Amino acid sequence: MELSLIRTVLRAGRAVALLLLVAGAADAGSPLPERQAELRHMVRQDCGSCHGLRLTGGLGRAITSEALAGRDPVDLMDVILDGMPGTAMPGWRPLLTEEEARWIADYLLTESE
């Protein structure tokens, strides 16, 4: 009887560990590859309509990795989500999750032209 109880506890423990692992992956905030492709397209098309198709500036300032060097990714995420009051930069919070906005911020900081 004790061996059966031990096996049950071990199975339950493995299930909990698996759930925690999956939850941790979800919390990591990295969108699925398909969504990443959509977000890259959005950056080029939607952001590019103001920041230039090469992101080197236009109505909005340049948002290349060189232009954003040294910027805090969390600050960039906040700008993406909430916009910049007094400018033409809209907030994208109705269309993006915080994780997606953070992914875009990291993408902008690391991608070259």
Automatic annotation (TrEMBL):
TM helices/strands, residue ranges: none
Biological source species: Paracoccus marinaquae
Taxonomic superkingdom: Bacteria
Keyword Signal on entry: yes
Protein name (Swiss-Prot/TrEMBL): Cytochrome c
Pfam families per record: Cytochrome_CBB3
Keyword annotations from UniProtKB, A to Z: Heme, Iron, Metal-binding, Signal
Record-linked InterPro entries: Cyt_c-like_dom
Residue span, Cytochrome c domain: 24-112
Keyword Electron transport: no
Coiled coil: none
Signal peptide positions on this chain: 1-28
